[in-house]
User: Fold these one by one.
Assistant:
Number 1:
Amino acid sequence: MPGFGVTSERSSHPLEKVGRFRIEGELVVIYLEGVGSFLVKKVQVVSVVLGLCDEIIRDRVEGEVGVMSLSDSGRGLRKGILGEQYVGLVQRVKRVLEGKEGKWAVFGVTE
C-alpha cells in the first residue's frame, strides 16, 4: 500500500482560560484576570453572534477599548481588548443569552 503525503498544514493557537463573561441586566460584563472588566450591551452581543456586525467594547467609564466580532468559522466570538486577543465559544454564548447558563469562559489567544 503506497504512503500518502501531507498537502497542507493547519496551525493552531493554544488557548488559556483568562476570564469569564456574565450578564448583568442589559449588559454583558467581560472579566479578564489581572486586566479589568469591560462592557458590551446584550443586544450588541446578539448582533455579533448573528453575524450582523462588529461591536465596540468599552471600559467602565465608557471609553472604547476594543472590538468584538464573529470568527471566520462562526464558532468563536472574538474580542480584541487593549491590543490582546480573546475568544469564547458561540455555542456557549447562546446558552448564556438564552438563560440556560450563567457565565461562559474567555480564553486568551497566544501565538
Number 2:
Amino acid sequence: METLDHLTPKHLGDDIPDGSNWALTCSTCNEGKADSFAWAATQWAHDYFHRGDPVGEAEIGAYQRWVVLARSRRCSFCSLGTREVELHVFRRVRTGLAIPANCAAACIACGRAKNVDFLIPRWAARELRRGSG
C-alpha cells in the first residue's frame, strides 16, 4: 500500500503547495522513516537497537530497512534506482547481524543472479498481506 510521505518532516517547515516535498512510499518505509530528517541522523544508521528491535534470523526491522534503502537508493549490482526497480535488503556477510552497516540493497533479478538471501521486512500492519505473496 502506497502512502504519501513528506521528504522533509512537515513540522520542520511549511507544507510546500507545489508538492515538491512529497513522495509516494510503501507504508513500511514511511513508518520506518518516522519523523527523521535524514537517514544519517537516526540512531539506526549507527546500528542502534531498541529492546524490541531484534527480529528473527532472516528479518529486518522497519527502521533499519529504511536506513539501508535511503542510504543505498540503487541496486548494489546493476545500479538501477528505485524509479526502475523495487529494492530489497540483504546482509553483505550472511552470518552477520541485520544492521545497516552489514546490509545493502539489490533488485530481485540481481539478488537471484548473485544468490543473496533477502531479509524479510517487518511489514507495517496495513501491509501484512504483502509479505505473504
Number 3:
Amino acid sequence: MDENRLPELPQEAFRPMIAQSVQLEQFLGEELIFCFRDLDGVHTFTTCYGDIYKTVNALRDYIRLLESVCDQWELTGFHRATYEYHAEKLRKIADMVLLKAMAMYRM
C-alpha cells in the first residue's frame, strides 16, 4: 500500500448512526452560563442548549469513529489502546457536559 494514501473506508461502516439521542430539543434556544476552574482560575462563558446539543453529538460521533476504526484498520497494541483511551475520555466528557447542562436547567 502506498504510504501517502489513506486506507479506503467502507461507507456503510461509517454512515451516520444514532447511538444515544440527546433530548434537549425543547431547550435549544435557552441561554445558560457555564463556570469551570482550571490552572488560570475560574472561567465563565455563556452558551445555549443548542450549542451543548451539537457538541455532545459531535463528541459521540467522534467516539463512534474512534471505536469503529480500531476493527476496520485492524489496530492492535498501543495504537488500539490509544484510540480506546481517547474514546473513553471523550465519552466521560460528553456525559459530564450533558449532566451539567441538565442539572443547570432544573435549577
Number 4:
Amino acid sequence: MLKKIFFFFIFFTSLLHGEVEINLRDSLKFKEIRRGGLDKNGYVIAQGLLEVSCSQEDIGKLIIFNIPPYGLMTNKKRWLKIEKIVFENNNNKLILKDTKHFIKIYGILNKHELNKHPRADINEGSYIGYFPINFSIYSKEL
C-alpha cells in the first residue's frame, strides 16, 4: 500500500512540473526555384521554422537538438534528398530565456537533383520537406 502511495505521489508531482513543447511551425519550403539559370554554387535553400514553448518553471533550461545530416522533400510525385540541414547561426543549443522561442531551420539542396527526371510534369509543384527532430532537455543550475 505504501508503494502505491509513493508511486502515485511521484506520478502526480511529475504532472505538476512544466513541460517543453517543440513544434514544427513551418515545414521546409523553397521560396523560389529557377531551374534554367543555375548560379555558380548550384544550390537552393529551403527554410522552415521551429517553435519552442515552455512554462515559467522551465526558463533557464538548456535544450540540445540532434537532427540527421540529411532530410527528404516531396511534391507528392517525386522525392528529393536534402544534402544538409542546419539551424540559424549554425547553433543547435538553446537556453530558454522566454516562454516562446522561434528557430529558423535551413535545408540545402543541389539544383542538379531537380533536373535528373526528364519529365517536367513530375518535377513541377510545391516541394515540402520533413525530417525527425531529436532533442535533450537539461535542467538549469541551482
